[in-house]
């Protein structure tokens, strides 16, 4: 007699095997960072899930025994529920790489990326009874890739000498976009004396706040940034309301909706202060290691941009000084040429006057005291001869006041003479 297989026994054994497999999966993924969930039926009810899956769902709504669409309603409009339906209908597994998903809604929404697999669960007959979801969050890797790309773009901006304000503003916006939680970035620039901080970039902070802190002093207890600049080391304030560093700025921060501020000094290669890099938060927050690493990376990038800006400013100033010196030298050369031309003109005039003196002296013997000025040159001078002048060679002449003054100023060794040429005495109307 042939034994007939007991289908109930087979089904029980199959069910026991499936349960054992499920237990193995739960044991395997229970403490893993990979997300795991076992879904049942066409509505994809969450039968079991590991802590990583529930953490992804969110502490306030994490539970089992409900359909995925009810647990995570935001997935419906993003195509993930349709994919589950397809796998359940066809029995074909599906694998996604770097799939983008927005978890949560409103101000609590966050962007995440996953590598995941939907695997069909089958009963003893091979019919699909549900789906296993296995995934690994790649958000940090994706953000790191984006961070590297943005960082490389900023380095290229610096290399092509983009304006400092453009580089710093782009850096601030990049960090604000990459951060998994809301953050508001500020960069303050140190005055040359290192005693005050000026606004550099803060695209998301209120204008009144930026105006109020523009020019704050560096010093112990002057908020997060003033203290970080003074200490030359990071300063983490996790709760502005209670921190003594913010006593003078607490009301201002409250109006701006700021609750935490972590500030990192931006230092040059020689250790001098270039500014500060700050990350503000709307709620009190303790920084994670990744937050501090991000601050260090971008503080270093900001230092590179600011130092490059200072070098370009110094180069421009030096070029301006060189151009000014060149212009001044050109003006000096032109002035020297003008003076030389004037000296040559005066020398020619002096030679001409000397000739007049000699000509007048020749006529002096016949007419000792002429009626008209003898120093008027070829055109003559009708003015009365009032003053007698002589030179060191013994020549003398009578001239009017103007021509005598011109002779004395322009001809060396000419002096006012007595009739006997015996001294520097003035004889009028002789």
Automatic annotation (TrEMBL):
Signal peptide feature range: none
Any coiled-coil regions, as ranges: 326-360
InterPro entries, A to Z: GAF (IPR003018), GAF-like_dom_sf (IPR029016), PAS-like_dom_sf (IPR035965), PAS_4 (IPR013656)
Pfam families reported for this sequence: GAF_2, PAS_4
Keywords tagged on the record: Coiled coil
Domain GAF intervals: 150-316
Claim: Coiled coil is one of the keywords in the record: yes
Gene3D superfamilies (alphabetical): 3.30.450.40, PAS domain
KW Coiled coil (keyword) present: yes
Protein name in the entry: GAF domain-containing protein
Organism: Micromonospora mirobrigensis
Organism phylogeny: Bacteria, Bacillati, Actinomycetota, Actinomycetes, Micromonosporales
């Amino acid at each position: 007699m042939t034994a007939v297989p007991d289908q109930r026994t087979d089904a029980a054994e199959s069910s026991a095997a499936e349960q054992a497999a499920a237990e193995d999966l739960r044991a395997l993924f229970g403490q893993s960072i990979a997300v795991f969930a076992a879904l049942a039926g066409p509505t994809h009810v969450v039968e079991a899930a590991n802590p990583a899956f529930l953490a992804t769902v969110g502490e306030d709504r994490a539970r089992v025994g409900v359909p995925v669409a009810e647990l995570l309603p935001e997935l419906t409009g993003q195509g993930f529920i349709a994919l589950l339906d397809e796998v359940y209908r066809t029995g074909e597994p599906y694998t996604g790489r770097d799939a983008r998903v927005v978890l949560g809604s409103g101000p609590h929404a966050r962007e995440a990326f996953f590598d995941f697999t939907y695997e069909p669960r089958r009963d003893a007959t091979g019919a699909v009874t549900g789906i296993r979801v296995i995934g690994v969050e790649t958000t940090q890797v994706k953000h790191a890739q984006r961070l590297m790309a943005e960082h490389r773009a900023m380095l290229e901006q610096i290399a092509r000498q983009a304006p400092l304000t453009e580089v710093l503003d782009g850096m601030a916006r990049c960090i604000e976009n990459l951060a998994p939680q809301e953050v508001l970035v500020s960069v303050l620039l140190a005055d040359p004396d290192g005693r005050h901080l000026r606004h550099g970039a803060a695209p998301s902070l209120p204008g009144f706040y930026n105006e109020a802190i523009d020019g704050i002093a560096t010093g112990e207890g002057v908020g997060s940034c003033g203290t970080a600049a003074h200490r030359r080391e990071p300063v983490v304030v996790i709760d502005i309301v209670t921190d003594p560093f913010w006593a003078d700025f607490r009301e201002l921060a409250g109006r701006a909706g700021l609750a935490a501020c972590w500030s990192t000094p931006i230092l040059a290669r020689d250790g001098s202060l270039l500014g500060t890099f700050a990350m503000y938060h709307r709620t009190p927050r303790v920084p994670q290691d990744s937050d501090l690493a991000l601050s260090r990376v971008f503080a270093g990038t900001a230092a590179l941009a600011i130092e490059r800006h200072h070098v370009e400013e110094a180069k421009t100033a030096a070029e301006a000084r060189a151009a000014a010196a060149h212009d001044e030298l050109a003006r000096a050369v032109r002035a020297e040429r003008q003076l030389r031309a004037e000296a040559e003109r005066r020398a020619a005039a002096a030679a001409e006057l000397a000739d007049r003196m000699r000509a007048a002296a020749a006529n002096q013997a016949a007419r000792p005291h002429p009626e008209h000025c003898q120093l008027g040159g070829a055109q003559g001078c009708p003015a009365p001869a009032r003053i007698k002048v002589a030179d060191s060679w013994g020549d003398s002449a009578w001239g009017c006041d103007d021509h005598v003054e011109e002779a004395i100023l322009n001809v060396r060794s000419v002096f006012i003479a007595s009739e006997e040429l015996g001294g520097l005495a003035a004889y009028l109307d002789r």
